[in-house]
Target: Multidrug ABC transporter ATP-binding protein
Amino acid sequence: MFSRDSWSEIIQALSSNWFRTLLTAFGVLWGIFILVILLAAGNGLENGVKQGFSGMATNSMFMWAQTASKPYKGLPKGRRYNFKIGDVDAIKQNVPNLRFVSPRNQLGGFRGANNVTRGLKTGAYNVYGDYPEIIKQQPMDITSGRFINYADINDKRKVAIIGESVKTGLYDPGEQPIGTYIKINGVNFMVIGTYKKKSNGGGDAEEAQKEIYVPFTSFSQAFNMGERVGWMAITAQDGSSITKLKDQVFDVVKSRHSIHPEDDRAVGSFDLYEEYSKINGLFVALNFVAYFVGILVLLSGIIGISNIMLIVVKERTKEIGIRRALGATPWSIRAQVLLESIFLTIISGMAGIVLASGVLALVNYFMEGMDTSDMMFLNPSVNIGVVLIALLILIVSGLLAGLIPAQNAIKVKPVDALRTE
Model:
């Protein structure tokens, strides 16, 4: 089966009509090329989206107070309430497996308000009152100075960390903001750091730099917030799902604020982990679609190889008859046809893999010189496992393509084959 004569016969059979063989091989080449490119594109999209979540604690949720929609304990529906700083400790004590519970207050709203001044310059920025843990829950790079620490919290220091866009808007080019003062709603804060971060989920990257962070305690004191908490960022421990823990968190808050246990509208939330899990599920579906479409295209090429092998067997009917008359076994005839089919399939398929690898290398080469920090597409590639799977598909496909022609070959009777013109 693997003798030199067998391989010479294979080369001669396939090269007797080069144009026909090349057209047939192109079907398999194109099918495996499409399969690899689709998988790489899906991987590139996944890398780009996950880059947007890099540094963020994805096992998190954000929670805020809304309006009670049910009466409870003599209190009417439609009443408003606010979280309190005491809720933070209550949640930590009563809900296990939580890593961070960060209370937050905010001035501004989306795209801020005219609330920050420095000299004659005025800016519209979001201002957050936070605890130090927030930097571990949201991606942020400190470009100069430092972030909030617990000494700032305990001493209620009026200090601020500003975004790079805030620095550009309030300071002259080349001016160093560290140690200077900005005025937020009439209250002076000293700048102790600057940051830069990318937008989350492909949003406005410029807007992500237009934020100011101050200690939660000094924020509450400066802007008369008292014990109120605007909202919370809550992160679960690794190995625990915040999605499974959030009902316990809601129960603690409802109990402390006399909210009906079945009032699902009283507490608003955004479950980042749940949304992140949906994205992961989307990429699983995309990989399935890539395999499905790629294999269908590959199947059309396999059908072409099967057809060409039927023609080859038909053309070699007399040769097969002579071999049978000289004592060749049905298995040797079948093996020869299957080997020709597998050889043609693997050679054309590997050519498709090489072509796809070249295209991906070219794409990655051009992307190396680009700023991909805010792109939704990054490093399209396939791992060695995909190549091995493709190789397995090729081998199985070659066997299937040659099976019917091989069976037809061994059905030829020597006497009938010798009579064929």
Notes: The longest helix spans residues 272-315. DSSP finds 14 helices and 13 strands in the chain.
